[in-house]
Amino acid sequence: xxxxxxxxxxxxVALALAVFLLLFTxxxxxxxxxxxxxxxxxxxxxxxxxxxxxxxxxxxxxxxxVAAQLGLALAIYRFREQGKPARHFEGHTGMEILWxxxxxxxxxxxxxxxxxxxxxxxxxxxxxxxxxxxxxxQQFAWNFRYAGPDGKFGRTKPELVSASTGNPVGIDPADxxxxxxxxSPGELAIPAGREVDLTLKSLDVTHxxxxxxxxxxxxxxxxxxxxxxxxxxxxxxYELACGQLCGLGHYKMRATVKVLSEPDFExxxxxxxxxxx
Amino acid sequence: MVTTAxxxxxxxxxxxxxxxxxxxxLDHKVIGIQYLLLALFSVFLGMALSLLMRIHLAWPxxxxxxxxxxxMTPEQYLALVTMHGSIMVFMVLTTAPQxxxxxxxLPIQIGAEDMAFxxxxxxxxxxxFVSLAVMASAFFVPEGxxxxxxxxxxxxxxxxxxxxxxxxxxxxxxxxxxxxxCAASLMGALNFITTTVDLRAKGMSLLRLPLTVWAWFxxxxxxxxxxxxxxxxxxxxxxxxxxxTSFFIPGGLVFTDQVLISHKGGSPLLWQHLxxxxxxxxxxxxxxxxxxxxxxxxxxxxxxxxxxxKAMVIAICGIGFLGFCVWGHHMFVSGMSPYSxxxxxxxxxxxxxxxxxxxxxxxxxLWGGRIQFTSAMLFALGFVxxxxxxxxxxxxxxxxxxxxxLHDTYFxxxxxxxxxxxxxxxxxxxxxxxxxxxxxxxxxxxGLGNLHFWLTFVGVYxxxxxxxxxxxxxxxxxYADTTGVGYLAKLQPVHVFIxxxxxxxxxxxxxxxxxxxxxxxSGKKAEVNPWNATTLExxxxxxxxxxxxxxxxxxxxxxxxxxxxxGHTADFIPQNLEPEKVSEAH
Amino acid sequence: MAPTIxxxxxxxxxxxxxxxxxxxxxxxxxxxxxxxxxxxxxYFTLVQxxxxxxxxxxxxxxxxxxxxxxxxxxxxxxxxxPILWFNTVILLGSSLTIHxxxxxxxxxxxxxxxxTILLGLTFLGGQLLAWKxxxxxxxxxxxxxxxxxxYLLTSAHGLHLAGGIFVLFYVVFRDWRRSRISQAxxxxxxxxxxxxxxxxxxxxxxxxxxxx
Lengths: 277, 586, 212
What we know:
The complex is a heterotrimer. Chain A has helices spanning 11-34, 45-78, 93-122, 262-276; strands at 131-138, 141-146, 182-185, 187-191, 195-202, 207-211, 216-220, 226-231, 236-242, 254-260. By secondary structure, chain A is α+β, with helices and mostly antiparallel strands. In chain A, the strands form two sheets. Chain A has a five-stranded mixed beta sheet. Chain A has a five-stranded mixed beta sheet with strand order 4-10-9-6-7. Chain B has a single domain, classed as Up-down Bundle (Cytochrome C Oxidase, Chain A). Chain B is 60% helix and 1% strand. Chain B has helices at 18-23, 28-58, 74-93, 95-109, 118-136, 169-198, 211-242, 268-302, 309-322, 338-366, 375-397, 400-406, 410-440, 446-472, 492-522, and strands at 253-255, 258-260. In chain C, helix 2 packs antiparallel against helix 5 (145-173) and helix 2 (40-71) runs parallel beside helix 6. Chain C is elongated, with a radius of gyration of 24 Å. Chain C starts with a helix and ends with a helix.
């Protein structure tokens, strides 16, 4: 009766595995550090704080990642079957407590630190002077409504929604406040340096408002009006992509976001008013 | 066939006839294999669906067979996404590790003759089978399978055909299939928990249970408490779809300029809360058995006890408990209260702690060992690496600020694939290479096993690591291609790379399939204990007798990981070896 | 010379010398000659676990109820058909009769048990009547969320109770001599489930009354 156990103490396998882990770790870290594929530049103050928090998290997870993969590689190679007996130990309570506490402090600390930026965006509402813009999502387009000179949005009714007659958000013609409302299909213009207060709505299913440069994403849920406020500082043209599965056109449900200097923004508004007559 | 009343009496006598032996068997071992075969079929189906997805993403203009006009439409792509996710999560990750291997080995590892309720066990398998059939039938209805993802958010999933193709009969069949699956899982959970609590052999105290048993036990508890909630959600969704209720559907919805007047006042968020209250424990159901297997294999093939057995048990229970407290981290952008988000975020960071403990302990198990690189061990080692990688990306997603950017991007796809679609699968493969000799009485070919490991390990990293970068670049998930949004165009080469890696990796699975089938008849005959392992399944024949222990009742004297104990010639002591027979010196 | 470990294993597998010959733990000995592999205790564990799963199902429905009620402006009170109170008394009575069935001597078991079944069926009949009354008042499943929940909760409970009635039938009609447990144990298990259904009904009634 054979007493030979499975003798697979192959140095070749251990070496190959350790080398692969090293290579994989190195390549992964390199691509992150070299930023082959990275965020576009942030255009808000909170966006920059996002970048800082991401970087902080990246450093911490990166260190843990490298340590763990290298530790694994080391253990694999150093303790491969070499004919020596294994060291018998069942644990080490001191170490258990130590690394449990360390992990707890690290993770919770990171989490608490992260809440700061979150609180700034979400715990407080828009300031009173923010420019209100209504974002209405539908399968598969975005429409943006400005309140016009009277500063108030007109009433909307779902039964009045009609893309063909140029009323994509269903403004009620009977409401005087709605007469000066400006609807911009597919293009969101924002004045640089001024806070905006978006109200997200949806006509049909849940969609997602997502602009990378703002570092923001928010679902637009039918039946709800969800606010999102920010102040974009850097003029430019950016892209809005839908961030919540909404049907077959989800992949092409985009819009243009234009952050314009104040004069350019005024010009844009005048163009829109003219187009809306 | 008279049931005997001898001491210890059998549950049921040895079955005869093909139907009773292999189709409607009451034997947990046969049922376990049935689940594994169902999972094997499902995983190849799921991989085929994902290959179609990947080919379309890499080469959208390329003509494909089976598609009219040769081109895949966006809704067909989304149908593939939905069914790939549903089949993989339900029919592979929830069945193979738990109902497959757990069914086969939990009773044996605790010294029992069978599960507590063999008839219930049989019913649970066939109910799972029916649920797969119902779900898969969605492919064959005129409008095709649903396009709302495995997460099926309303209103998209609730209002019927007007929200998109596949949202009619296809979606209804999907919901019914999932509901049936809930019932099947509940049946299984009942059996697993009762068996572990009440059928342990003499001397098999809780702290002598193998970690595989602890994992299956806690997983079953999670399933027991979570699937009832999903069932309730499915009932509500079905009523919204077919009975005119408005649990999830708000009023005033407009589809192609027509107002939907038959529903109002419902909350899409209510579905999300119910679904994710189930959905988060579900992902722990998918991974916990793999963690148990990893611990078991690392100890066995490093010839050392598991480092910190008690801490491992506490960690398994901690992960299980906390798993019920973190569901809101799937909903940071949903419109839910930001204060809830804060709470969920902190709880989610906390659940990283028991996971980290397990990782430390795995490394501690290897440290000072004498590692044997069997195929099973290779997959266990791969599991550790993958779990670390996949778990760490969770630290980003757990922070709501960061999640605002990364939610629904490929960063999330990378995270859950590495954890579920790879680490959990490695747990399944490790278990398969380890237990195949016991189940089928033959050894798998180790050379092919090594090849399978390398192809898969390198392959999965090549597939899923680049997805992190896609996510950072802002690439949304569930996008049928990169032509719709401008900034995605420059990411297209990454898709090509991923797809080529995927094709090679999937092809590599054929090595496993060949090994699995070929060794059934031609593999080397397996001994009782080819791995010199310590737990009770390695004390009986390969395969075991129909009542597991040949009428005997094992008596357990020690814990499950007595490897390398000083002063013995053999470097392991089986759990049931009498103390007087464990000689000090030979 | 003492046998090696592997030789020990061989002996164990061949069935000699391994194990202590002590039979498996468990078996309350309530059935001489019956199976002691699966103790009666396991059946009680099963029922308790089943109740835990059912609780989770109804907790999901309950929280949906609370959320939905708090949400919208379209919550209209659903008047509770008065027959519900009669049904409640019937169900409470059936809990009493099932308790008496288990407490009395064997001869009295069957009549009290049968009475329980009848009361259970009466309850279900009464629930159907309640539905009819509600429908006559123009309240259907899809009328408004409050009525939706009324029909949903009562039918969910009713289905589970029907399952319980099926078990009650099973307890009196199955041949228990060929079973792993005794009829007395089966009756105890059924009673636990039955009392729970009773309690669940009281909870749902309170929810529907307070929520209306």
